[in-house]
């Protein structure tokens, strides 16, 4: 199981990668394996301010639907356009082409509440 060291993680299995004042958010390798084959990603919050730990969308797998929680407060700048036609990118490349949203951080200090790769690995028993 892959847990990139440069990312930060939530207990709800989202990751965040900060690049300047914007960040990319997606679900972890652990999450996509637990969900199974992802068939649809539904994110309708583009352009909206979403608070930390609030739902920004859902992901649908063959047997389940799961809410997506934003790791930090921010404005959803962009939804990954590739996920409309190829939601399975979340399964095949969760930390790369399978990213879900790009956000503008509202409060960078909230990053301090997230887990490191090592902490996340312990949480999932990896």
UniProtKB/TrEMBL annotation:
<comment type="function">
    <text>The glycine cleavage system catalyzes the degradation of glycine. The H protein shuttles the methylamine group of glycine from the P protein to the T protein.</text>
</comment>
<dbReference type="GO" id="GO:0005960">
    <property type="term" value="C:glycine cleavage complex"/>
</dbReference>
<keyword id="KW-0450">Lipoyl</keyword>
<comment type="subunit">
    <text>The glycine cleavage system is composed of four proteins: P, T, L and H.</text>
</comment>
<dbReference type="InterPro" id="IPR002930">
    <property type="entry name" value="GCV_H"/>
</dbReference>
<comment type="similarity">
    <text>Belongs to the GcvH family.</text>
</comment>
<feature type="modified residue" description="N6-lipoyllysine">
    <location>
        <position position="63"/>
    </location>
</feature>
<dbReference type="InterPro" id="IPR033753">
    <property type="entry name" value="GCV_H/Fam206"/>
</dbReference>
<protein>
    <recommendedName>
        <fullName>Glycine cleavage system H protein</fullName>
    </recommendedName>
</protein>
<dbReference type="InterPro" id="IPR017453">
    <property type="entry name" value="GCV_H_sub"/>
</dbReference>
<dbReference type="InterPro" id="IPR011053">
    <property type="entry name" value="Single_hybrid_motif"/>
</dbReference>
<dbReference type="InterPro" id="IPR000089">
    <property type="entry name" value="Biotin_lipoyl"/>
</dbReference>
<feature type="domain" description="Lipoyl-binding">
    <location>
        <begin position="22"/>
        <end position="104"/>
    </location>
</feature>
<dbReference type="GO" id="GO:0019464">
    <property type="term" value="P:glycine decarboxylation via glycine cleavage system"/>
</dbReference>
<dbReference type="GO" id="GO:0005829">
    <property type="term" value="C:cytosol"/>
</dbReference>
<dbReference type="Pfam" id="PF01597">
    <property type="entry name" value="GCV_H"/>
</dbReference>
<dbReference type="GO" id="GO:0009249">
    <property type="term" value="P:protein lipoylation"/>
</dbReference>
